[in-house]
């Protein structure tokens, strides 16, 4: 059996011939007059062209916004990241003594809670006897 290959020329010819036959059949079998069909076709083509123009404009807007975002991300983000890192380092440096004091106080509180807990256990043991 012979292997059939796809031919773009044959496909295009078939597409053109099919379009002509379909268009002719549509005109012959259309329930509307030729003028009405032409007007509808013109309106449809104009609507499609308007839609394509809007689509082209929308694509251009998206591309322009993409360029703006890329520019801003390349310029502002590094600056802000450096500034933020600097602020964090300054905060850590300025608050390191305070944090150490807070940790020390938390340790004292934790020890006191443990002592209190031990005392409560002793009291409960004495009552149980």
From TrEMBL:
Coiled coil: 99-126
Record carries keyword Transmembrane helix: yes
Membrane-spanning intervals of the chain: 12-30
A Pfam cross-reference name: YtxH
Keywords, alphabetical: Coiled coil, Membrane, Transmembrane, Transmembrane helix
Record's keyword annotation contains Magnesium: no
Tree of life domain: Bacteria
PANTHER family reported in the protein's UniProt record: GENERAL STRESS PROTEIN, SLL0268 PROTEIN
Protein known as: YtxH domain-containing protein
Gene source species: Vagococcus silagei
């Amino acid at each position: 059996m012979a292997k059939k290959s796809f031919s773009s020329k044959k496909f295009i010819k078939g597409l053109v011939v099919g379009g002509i036959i379909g268009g002719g059949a549509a005109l012959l079998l259309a329930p509307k007059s030729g003028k009405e069909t032409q007007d509808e076709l013109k309106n449809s083509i104009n609507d499609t062209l308007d839609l394509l123009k809007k689509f082209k404009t929308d694509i251009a807007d998206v591309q322009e916004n993409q360029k703006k975002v890329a520019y801003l991300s390349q310029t502002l983000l590094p600056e802000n990241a450096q500034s933020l890192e600097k602020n964090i380092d300054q905060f850590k440096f300025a608050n390191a003594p305070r944090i150490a004091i807070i940790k020390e106080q938390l340790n004292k509180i934790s020890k006191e809670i443990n002592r209190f807990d031990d005392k409560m256990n002793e009291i409960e043991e004495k009552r149980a006897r």
